[in-house]
Amino acid sequence: MDKSSSVSERIRKVFQDTYNAKPEIIVRAPGRVNLIGEHTDYNDGFVLPMAINRAIYFAARPRADRQVRLHFSDFNTTEIFNPETLEKGPSAPVEYIKGVASQFEFEKIEIPGLDGVFAGDIPISAGLSSSAALELAAARVFCALADIPWEPVRMAKLAQRAENEWVGMNCGIMDQLISAIGEKDKALLIDCRSLQTTQTTLPGNVTVFVMDTGTRRSGHGLVDSAYSERRAQCEEAARVLKVPALRDCSLDYLEANRDLLDPLVYRRARHVVTENQRTLEAQRVLAAGDPAAMGKLMNESHASLQYDFEVSTPALDTMADLARSFPGCYGARMTGGGFGGCAVAIVQSEDAAEFQQQVALEYENQLQIKPQLYACRASEGVSLIPS
Ligand code: GLA
After folding, report:
1. Which atom of ligand 1 is nearest to the CA of 40?
2. Ligand 1, from 175, 190, 302: best to mutate by most atoms within 8 Å of Cβ?
3. Is 115 in the pocket of ligand 1 (CB under 6 A)?
4. By CB atoms within 10 Å of each CB, which of 126, 199, 257, 288 scores lowest?
5. Is the Cβ atom of 300 under 6 angstroms away from ligand 1?
6. How confident is the model at residue 2 (pLDDT cuts 50, 70, 90)?
């Protein structure tokens, strides 16, 4: 269901109720689903995400002073800060915005004070990059109010630094970049070293389903220790193998040097090396209009994430299995960082309604957790919408 128009209506109303005025600017920054290429971005590798028709909206008007006053309507909280005197705090959504503000300060771009409202329809902590969307929405509004030109790639990198340095989450570039440069009706193959992209059209008779398991990574703050551990293992593999990054390692080279690596580190590296191959292949088969081949690659990706990289969970495995057991489904896999959140499937469009119903029912029967299945469309990256 596409609720985006209702979010933009809601945000106007909340803005009016909160500030007794109309916003001067509203931006929309999408979440994303990664079709394939998981845990490859921070290895200088390849990813194939699409921005989705679920987004964070940020409505704002400038103030005469430098106070940034933000109302988060989905959390019913209000936060105030001054970009010149930033301090870290515990509250999740505003820390992403402060992180972006700190990077603007660092780059000597003066953000004027503002009154703002955030609202959105991206499920939180579900692996759909609501945090990158928050960051890109903030960057877009800050650029507009500071009256500087919008440079999406520069701002994606700035947002990634905000997340690395302010929030302390050592993520790669994928989420921020796709929220910045996503394209309507296209998935993008991204080379995370050169940041070159190749647009890929999904076959017309295929529907992409995001399948929220209703489970979340447990006991986490903003910082993800399992993620950092995986990243460190990949870096160790690259160091031992004497390559700049795992992107530079072929499967033959890895196998020839297997004995040099700790067995666990070897499996982590094997995931990344094979996932890069699958991602490049995925772009080729999609361009050739072959969803069955794409589905097979997605299934293989899931197995590699489950057994070699060990970031899947029983709920994600169950969801992917149930999806695949449906005849019109070409393939399914977990998506995003892992440890809960969402899986993604590609399904023959004429079977979409039945797929949605059947998989949700079966999943709930098996796990006693109510899932959410969304048919997603590829949407454009962050943009201004009429205020
Ligand atoms: C998270 C990170 C991304 C990427 C994925 C795994 O979403 O933010 O940079 O590493 O995990 O592919």
Report:
1. 12
2. 175
3. no
4. 288
5. no
6. very low
- Determine which residue's CA is closest to atom 9 belonging to ligand 1: 172
Q: Measured on CA atoms in the order 355, 123, 126, 296, is the torsion positive or negative?
A: positive
What is the spatial distance between Cα 302 and Cα 26, in angstroms, rounded to a whole number? Answer: 38
Atom of ligand 1 nearest to the CA of 129: 7
Look up the domain containing 36 and give its range: 3-200+379-385
Whether residue 1 has pLDDT greater than 50: no
| Residue 84 belongs to some domain of the structure | yes
Cβ-contact 323, 211 below 8 angstroms: yes
pLDDT at 5 over 90: no
- Min mean pLDDT across 61-75, 215-229, 235-249 is at 215-229
Q: Does 178 score more than 50 pLDDT?
A: yes
pLDDT digits 0-9 by tens, 261-320: 999 999 999 999 999 999 999 999 999 999 999 999 999 999 999 999 999 999 999 999
> Residue 4 has what pLDDT?
52
Asked whether residue 128 is domain-assigned, the answer is yes
Kindly report the CA angle at 312 between 367 and 348, in degrees rounded to 5? 75
| Catalytic residue, candidates 175, 212, 224, 308 | 175
CA distance 382 to 138: 10
Q: Is ligand 1 within 6 A of the CB of residue 49?
A: no
Q: Give the count of domains, the chain.
A: 1
Asked whether 38 lines ligand 1 (CB < 6 A), one says yes
CATH number at residue 15: 3.30.230.10
Structure tokens at 45: 């590798």
- Tell me how far apart the alpha carbons of residues 63 and 116 are, in angstroms, rounded to a whole number: 10
Are 264 and 240 contacting, i.e. CB atoms less than 8 angstroms apart? no
Atom number, ligand 1, closest to the C-alpha of residue 39: 12
Kindly state whether residue 310 falls inside one of the protein's structural domains.
no
Res. 130 pLDDT band, cuts 50 70 90: very high
Question: pLDDT exceeding 90 applies to what percent of the chain?
Answer: 95
Task: Please confirm, yes or no, whether 175 is among the known catalytic residues.
Answer: yes
Torsion sign over Cα 184, 186, 190, 195: negative
317 vs 59: CA distance, rounded Å = 39
Q: Is 171 in the pocket of ligand 1 (CB under 6 A)?
A: yes
